[in-house]
Design brief:
By secondary structure, the chain is α/β, with parallel strands linked by helices. It contains 8 helices and 5 strands; from the N terminus they run E-H-E-H-H-H-E-H-E-H-H-E-H. It binds shikimate-3-phosphate. The site of shikimate-3-phosphate has 10 residues, from loops.
């Protein structure tokens, strides 16, 4: 896609670490812009008929990643839409290439402490076990460059509500669209 800010084919993909606020923020942005919203984890759970945690346990992480990539490929051809992705979507080079080509990618940056506080009590499969902190730290620092490499826009949401983050992002996108109109 040449013009990522064209209203008719606007495809916004929200990326970021677990707990950065992707799902809630993405849904508010979609509402503000009056376009469809897709949450890849929720969609995977609907298609597979089980939770993400159960997919990891019963089918394994690799199977989850395959389902996630094929869903991304399918949602990337349905626009205008806002897509909130799972935190690991950027691990696959194929996913990164697809997003770079097709989508306006928005990275919700957020400190690891805040992400972990927000994930506390959730059953995210990658945040279980005795060494949650060191496992999360490794994932967080391994992924930072990958998020950065595909992001068209980034916003630090550490001290921000999803509502404020969504307002800032929607305004930025709408002003780019009207500048080009
Ligand atoms: C994952 C993040 C999760 C979910 C799965 C794997 C990851 O989504 O896709 O548990 O690898 O970071 P959220 O980022 O919405 O928690």
């Amino acid at each position: 896609m040449n013009d990522k800010y064209a209203l008719d084919n606007l495809l916004i993909v929200i990326i970021g670490f677990m707990g950065s606020g992707k799902s809630v923020t993405g849904e508010i942005i979609a509402r503000k812009l009056g376009i469809d919203f897709v949450d890849t984890d929720q969609e995977i759970e609907r298609i597979e008929g089980m939770s993400v945690a159960d997919i990891f346990t019963k089918k394994g992480e690799m199977a989850f990643r395959e389902i996630e990539s094929s869903l991304l490929a399918s949602v990337c051809s349905r626009y205008p839409a806002v897509v909130s992705s799972g935190g690991g979507i950027i691990l696959s080079s194929k996913n990164r290439e697809l997003m770079e080509e097709k989508a306006l990618v928005v990275w919700l940056k957020c400190s690891l402490d805040t992400c972990l506080q927000r994930c506390n009590g959730s059953n995210r499969p990658l945040l279980q076990g005795d060494n949650v902190l060191s496992a999360a730290e490794s994932l967080y620092f391994e992924r930072e460059n990958l998020y950065s490499s595909v992001a068209d826009l980034e916003l630090d949401t550490t001290d921000m509500t999803p509502q404020s983050a969504a307002e800032i992002i929607a305004e930025k996108i709408m002003s780019e669209i009207s500048c080009k109109a």
